[in-house]
Amino acid sequence: MNPKKNSKTTRLLSWLCTITIFAATLTQAASASHLTASAAGTGGIKGNILPAGYVTERQMKLANPWTDANEYPLFNVMRKAQSGQKVTIAFIGGSITKGTMSQGTRDSSMNKKLTYVDYFTNWWYKKFPRADLRFVNAGISATDSYLGVHRVQKDVLDKEPDLVVVEFAVNDKKTAYHKQSYENLIRKILDSPTKPAVMLLFMAKLNGWSCQLQQSQIGKHYKLPMLSYGNVMMDMMNQGIYTMEELSGDAIHPSALGYAVVGEILVRYLDSVQEKSLGQVVSKKVPTKYVTSKKYSSAKVLTCKDIKIQKKGTFEESSKSSIFKNNLTSASGNGDLTFTVTGKNIGLVFAQQTNGRGGQFDVYVDGKKTAQIDADNSGGRHNKPGSVPCYSSNTKKAHTIRIVRSKKSSGHALTLYAVLVSN
Q: Given 3-state DSSP classes, what are the helix, strand and coil percentages for the chain, each rounded to the nearest 5?
């Protein structure tokens, strides 16, 4: 080989190796820095993206017409963040909290398509860059406060939050048991060891429907900060500021514009609280009395491995859900599952299927029919968890539960996700 050519080749290889090692070192350093920041929960990673100019002063008053809120717990959270301490903020709700966004007719003009959770977290990053911020999103699509009160311990409270935002106004129904489960959810959060601050967010469908009235009754009893997107949304449409199609593409989930409106309501309220947080305030105690009753204070979720199965029938062990582990599925036949569980109040969580195979199943408790499961969600956009209460009493004892396909069922399939129990 030509010595000169060989020398040039050697120098070229050496140069390439040096560049490669240098680049790898930079990449490794950058990755390590990012991982350290993420692991530490350092503030200031996001931030600066906050909505403005959508909501007027008059509309802010519509968003927050409740004037007797106890903001002292929020003051404490902000002071903790200001001093650079660890602060954990959690969100629990349905698909809106999870971040489902519809396509609005004005969304193409939006520079950023962020959810209310994004805007809320960005506010904390921007205002408290020294804080060790952690965020927990416990939103699950199509779920209500009845399931929420059973899963809040594992999904939220075990993370030791300082602040919890609750959003169930669209998914709950105007029923006594939903009012009861909502109050018990709130009390369970307030009474947890970290004594977190609680904020209530009332979303609404485009026709104005929501459970805001009955949920705000609970909020007023506990003097909680409450904010209504529903009030502002309806005013915007009535005033001709925005159309229904601009605020939502499916009449339920906000568009990017809709979320920006929610986001501005939230961050402007947080701004107002921060301005007051440095002043002298007096703490107010949580009321001891319930509006409804202390029914779900010990509520929890049991997997299908936590129950004592006596007869499986046509059910087999499965893993249909990434959220609820250890499922039982009957794809055909009559199901006929029998198991025992101990508690005062019992409910079931199951899959509602869009493929037309979901059936109707009768639920018997101690030999008496108490509820029916409808696993059919034909025409729906996606499979979703359904929940149904099937037994309630004042005495804690073991009960035998039997689930069998109804004689007039249109489908044959059922997946049981979990069992809900409270004592």
A: 35, 25, 40
Residues across the chain: 423
- Between CA 242 and CA 234 the distance in angstroms is 10
Average pLDDT over residues 158-177: 97
Angstrom CA distances, 118 to 25, 163, 246, stand at 33, 16, 20
Q: What CA–CA distances, in Å, run from 327 to 34, 153, 191, 317, 362?
A: 37, 20, 31, 6, 18
Cα–Cα distances (Å) from 360 to 344, 353, 389, 408, in that order, read 25, 11, 15, 8
* Residue 36 to residues 39, 42, 118, 339, Cα–Cα distance (Å): 5, 9, 22, 47
| Chain center to CA of 53 | 27
Do residues 375 and 411 lie in contact, with contact meaning Cβ atoms separated by under 8 Å? yes
Q: Which residues contact 85 (CB under 8 A, 6 or more apart)?
A: 131, 132
Is-contact 390 363, C-beta < 8 A?
A: yes
pLDDT by residue (tens digit) across 217-251? Answer: 999 999 999 999 999 999 999 999 999 999 999 99
Residue 286's pLDDT is: 85
Pairing between strand 308-311 and 337-352? antiparallel
The strand pair at 226-228 and 197-202 is best described as parallel
Q: Is 286 left (phi over 0), alpha (psi -120 to 50) or beta?
A: beta
Residue 423 burial (CB count, 10 A): 13
Longest C-alpha distance within the chain, in Å?
96
Q: What are the structure tokens assigned to 169, written together?
A: 């106004």
More confident residue, 47 or 103: 103
pLDDT at 39: 28
The token pair that represents 338 in the structure block:
């029998």
Three-state DSSP state, 289: coil
User: With contact defined as beta carbons under 8 Å apart, do 229 and 196 qualify?
Assistant: no
Tokens (6 digits) for 242: 């925005």
Q: DSSP readout, 211-224?
A: SHHHHHHHHHHTT-
**Lowest-pLDDT range, 2-16, 156-170, 211-225?**
2-16
**How far is it, in rounded angstroms, from Cα 326 to Cα 305?**
6
Per DSSP, helices labelled H in 41-66 are 57-63
The whole-number average pLDDT for the span 99-103 is 97
Q: What strands lie across the sheet with 132-139, from one edge to the other?
A: 132-139, 86-93, 163-167, 197-202, 226-228
